[in-house]
Write a structure and sequence with these properties.
Oligomer: single chain
Order of helices and strands: EHEEEHEEHEEHHHHHHHH
Strand content: 5-15%
Bound molecules: glutathione
Helix content: 40-55%
CATH class of the largest domain: Mainly Alpha
Number of domains: 2
Shape: globular
CATH topology of the largest domain: Glutathione S-transferase Yfyf (Class Pi), Chain A, domain 2
Length: about 270
């Protein structure tokens, strides 16, 4: 087995990690993914050498106990080394093989995988201009992801409001209006298949979690954004998503996740 070039720690499954794992498959980069279900991860030591807490590590790491800050609630056990490498304390968190250098933010973890490839198949562009265009799409997706995260967390913890829904709807509209502009006439967001398309597919996949809370939305008189007119008014973007999901290296992660949601799989609670 080739030596892993990047270790990623997260709750699993996590569409944010799919960005890195799809990239790794497409450009043949060996990576290691460590983690457990969202609930189980509360009983793990968050560290380069992450693993389930034992009575001993729990005692040894009392000083690692931290109040969760985003998504999780209660206590999480993050070591000093984890926070030095990943100062915002979030997952996914990636590490260089020695554990010395941390990479945080799922878009940047994905970029790291492409940069580590011997042959990235131009996934991160083949010129400074193309790479920067890809970065520009990734920036717009991070803006969307912030609103999408607030919406999904509010659905999960039962605090969704009409305003929360409207904010997410506006964010989706703003994001897709740009992708629609491109995809109406071109097969990919930036020339050929790139990190921009990978991120696009993974952010939509993550948003699809909303369908687990269709009942909550219906009580607000709303439907899931991906089933509502908002998404339907961006047909080229929706077709692009389906096209990407059919690529085997995408399907390997995305299909089981979507099948689980469609089969009424257990809601994805992380607190
Ligand atoms: N924009 C970040 C989002 C990461 C994030 O917010 N992760 C949350 C879980 S959804 C987390 O690790 N929270 C840790 C905590 O609550 O302390 C990314 O794409 O990586």
């Amino acid at each position: 087995m080739p030596k892993s070039l990047l270790r990623i720690f997260s709750y699993l499954p996590n569409p944010r990690i799919f960005k890195a794992s799809i990239t790794a498959r497409l450009c043949n980069v060996p990576i290691e993914i460590r983690g457990a279900s969202p609930k189980e991860l509360k009983g793990w030591l968050w560290d380069f050498d992450a693993g389930p807490l034992t009575e001993k590590t729990r005692q040894d790491t009392r000083e690692s106990a931290q109040t969760a800050s985003r998504g999780y609630s209660g206590t999480l056990y993050k070591t000093r080394g984890f926070l030095d490498a990943n100062p915002y304390g979030t997952v996914p968190a990636a590490f260089s093989p020695s554990g010395e250098i941390g990479v945080f933010e799922s878009n940047s973890i994905m970029r790291a995988v492409a940069r580590l490839a011997t042959n990235s198949n131009n996934l991160y562009g083949s010129s400074a201009y193309q790479s920067s265009r890809i970065d520009a799409f990734l920036d717009t997706m991070l803006l969307f992801a912030k609103d999408s995260q607030a919406y999904l967390l509010a659905l999960m913890n039962g605090s969704i409001t009409n305003q929360g829904y409207v904010n997410a709807e506006q964010a989706l509209h703003d994001w897709l209006s740009g992708t629609e502009q491109v995809l109406g006439g071109k097969p990919y967001l930036s020339g050929e298949l790139s990190l921009a398309d990978i991120c696009f597919a993974c952010e939509i996949t993550l948003l699809k979690l909303e369908s687990c809370y269709a009942g909550t939305l219906s009580n607000l008189g709303k439907s899931p954004l991906m089933a509502a007119p908002t998404a339907k008014s961006f047909p080229a973007s929706m077709r692009h998503y389906e096209k990407l999901c059919a690529i085997p290296d995408f399907a390997a992660d995305i299909k089981p996740f979507i099948d689980n949601i469609a089969g009424g799989g257990s809601p994805y609670e992380i607190s």
